[in-house]
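[step 3/7] inverse_fold.run input=structure_tokens len=273
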């Protein structure tokens, strides 16, 4: 059984997690297929941005716990999966393209890391979010770098971990885990609207901005000022940027403006409630 499917539709590189009914559990096979699909789309110029979605009831319910039941006999597989998971989150976060998560069902534990590492999280009212690791005696250590300060304040993250609270889509939006929430009947329309916005942006500007934010967060105040000045100066000297400015002044559009007209519904393979 294939665990992950990838395709390109109207400039959107779409990664579909295929075992939504089984929870898209994080194990070496699944993580390998996911990482490979992400890398391929990140390197393909035909994919202007990347969508991550799930087919079926769940988005992702976290680590595959079967190996843990075997104790030390299965520890090698657990360690391998944890390392692969850490790499996957880093690849999502550092991807030079905008990465969008479409969530239409439960997200738990390690699944929260996947959504938190994405640039944009869109959810239907079917979605729920839960950091449940403490219930089995561990903590979401690999998830927290993508939650602390990036998505939620440290104290809110502490609350989510210490209570293992399950948040519905609207509460998740209120704390910053989700960027937009749509009624189920409006989900497809809302997703397409955002895709049309994303595909207008300069691929180079997106890549530079994402790299800028990563460096910015790792710098002190003086370093941030220097980084901001250097990045802006480097961009405004480029011929493509100068040409785009001229086109805007003439009432025209730069060449990277794309139109999003997918051949199939973007949320068509997801859970319909």
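[step 3/7] decode complete -> sequence:
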């Amino acid at each position: 059984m294939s665990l992950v499917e990838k395709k390109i539709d109207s400039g959107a590189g779409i990664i579909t997690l295929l075992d939504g009914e089984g929870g898209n559990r994080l194990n070496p096979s699944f993580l390998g297929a996911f990482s490979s699909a992400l890398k391929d789309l990140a390197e393909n110029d035909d994919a202007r941005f990347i969508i991550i979605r799930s087919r079926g009831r769940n988005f992702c319910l976290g680590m595959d716990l079967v190996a843990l039941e075997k104790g030390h006999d299965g520890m090698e597989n657990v360690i391998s999966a944890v390392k692969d998971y850490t790499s996957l989150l880093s690849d999502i976060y550092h991807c030079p393209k905008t990465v969008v998560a479409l969530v239409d069902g439960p997200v738990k534990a390690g699944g929260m890391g996947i959504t938190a590492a994405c640039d944009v999280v869109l959810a239907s009212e079917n979605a729920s979010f839960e950091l449940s690791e403490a219930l089995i005696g561990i903590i979401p250590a690999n998830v927290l770098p993508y939650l602390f300060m990036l998505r939620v304040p440290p104290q809110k993250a502490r609350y989510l971990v210490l209570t293992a609270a399950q948040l519905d889509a609207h509460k998740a939006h209120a704390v910053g885990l989700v960027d937009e929430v749509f009624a189920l009947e409006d989900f497809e329309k809302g997703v397409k609207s955002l895709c049309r916005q994303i595909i207008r942006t300069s691929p180079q500007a997106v890549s530079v901005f994402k790299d800028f934010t990563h460096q910015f967060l790792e710098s002190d105040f003086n370093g941030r000022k220097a980084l901001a000045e250097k990045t802006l100066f480097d961009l405004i000297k480029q011929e493509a940027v100068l040409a785009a400015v001229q086109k805007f002044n003439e009432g025209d559009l730069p060449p990277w403006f794309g139109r999003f007209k997918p051949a199939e519904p973007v949320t068509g393979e997801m859970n319909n409630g």
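[step 4/7] annotate
The chain has two domains: 4-198, 203-249.
Strands lie at 4-9, 12-17, 49-54, 99-103, 106-108, 120-124, 128-130, 166-168, 180-182.
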